Amino acid sequence: MNQSVLEPNGAEAERIADLALMLFGGAAIIFFGVMALAAASVWGGVSVRRAIASERMIVAAGIAFPVITLTALLFYSLWLMRANIQGNATPPAGRIEVAAEQWWWRITYVEPDGRRISEANELRLPVGREVELVLTSPDVIHSLWIPAIGGKLDMIPGRTNRMRVSIDGPGIYRGQCAEYCGGPHALMAFDVIALEATEFDAWVRGDVAGGSTETVRGRGIFEESGCGSCHAVRGANASGLVGPDLSRVGGRRTIAAGTLPTSRENLTRFIVDGQSIKPGNLMPPFGLFAAEDVDAISAYLMSLQ
Ligand code: HEC
Ligand SMILES: [Cu+2]
């Protein structure tokens, strides 16, 4: 999976990568320059050593050079990041709300007509369309970081932070919470799937598949076992808001915020004993199910795509 700042796939990440390369490059040149001067001051001839120790040298290299270089770098970085700093005059072409929960991601696609589609733990983005991510947190400070797509931005309780992203090409990336937020913080990741804009629109507006005859039993057990008090599934008797929306959980690449690949077996493992897979997460373990019952639930969840 691509979680590299060195392979940017979007305008924001490209600017950050450019600035970083320039800083590393400049720092390397200065480092070797200083080392050369240090060597000359130890092994150089008398006249070289005298030149290095002169007052002019100290004023030029010790005061003037750093002041000029750092001032130039400051203005260069402000200019480079101007789009990130100035705010945005034009409205974004799309809006997606991302709330960081302990320890998963609540994602809401806001349609142009105001319709809201709830999802979780997987962020789909349209290629070539500037999208505004509206970042909030209901509990503690988290931070959103998708290294290939943009910089880090904190998600702070009581505040709304906004980040514009635009993506050059389709692909699969990985994002991660970048601010320690308690126990399972390390297991708070998400997949980012960049789709062609038409595919993206079809997916956002698409119906929830699922509930074939094979999975009717699992759906019944799911609804009777109280899962719906914490989880929502569109079209089922489940509208809880405590945990991730499961309407299309079977279509995600991973479950439990990037912790396990999605499969029937892994769903069963997580439902029965999620606490040993993601210690400290806020879903109680359901160890009392008969094996065939929990397997039926997992089959039902797999069918939700
Ligand atoms: C008390 C609230 C609560 C109940 C009841 C509950 N869950 Fe959860 N569930 C959660 C929370 C919170 C998470 C997020 C865990 C995490 O990843 O940190 C979660 C995560 C999950 C996930 C992973 C979702 C994803 O997006 O990857 C599945 C699948 C799941 N629960 C299934 C179930 C099933 C099936 C039941 C009923 C047997 C159930 N849950 C009952 C709170 C609950
Ligand atoms: Cu975190």
TrEMBL record:
Keywords: Copper, Electron transport, Heme, Iron, Membrane, Metal-binding, Transmembrane, Transmembrane helix, Transport
Matches recorded under Gene3D superfamilies: Cupredoxins - blue copper proteins (2.60.40.420)
Entry annotated with the keyword rRNA-binding: no
Domain Cytochrome c per the UniProt entry, residue ranges: 213-305
Database matches in Pfam families: COX2 (PF00116), Cytochrom_C (PF00034)
CDD domains: CuRO_CcO_Caa3_II
Segments traversing the membrane: 20-46, 58-79
SUPFAM superfamilies noted in UniProt: Cupredoxins (SSF49503), Cytochrome c (SSF46626)
InterPro entries: CcO_II, CcO_II-like_C, Copper_CuA, Cupredoxin, CuRO_CcO_Caa3_II, Cyt_c-like_dom, Cyt_c-like_dom_sf
Localisation: Membrane
Key word ATP-binding present: no
Positions of the Cytochrome oxidase subunit II copper A binding domain: 91-206
Reaction catalysis annotation: 4 Fe(II)-[cytochrome c] + O2 + 8 H(+)(in) = 4 Fe(III)-[cytochrome c] + 2 H2O + 4 H(+)(out)
Family statement: Belongs to the cytochrome c oxidase subunit 2 family.
PANTHER family, sorted: CYTOCHROME C OXIDASE SUBUNIT 2, CYTOCHROME C OXIDASE, SUBUNIT II
UniProt name for this protein: C-type cytochrome
Species annotation: Flaviflagellibacter deserti
Biological classification of the source: Bacteria, Pseudomonadati, Pseudomonadota, Alphaproteobacteria, Hyphomicrobiales
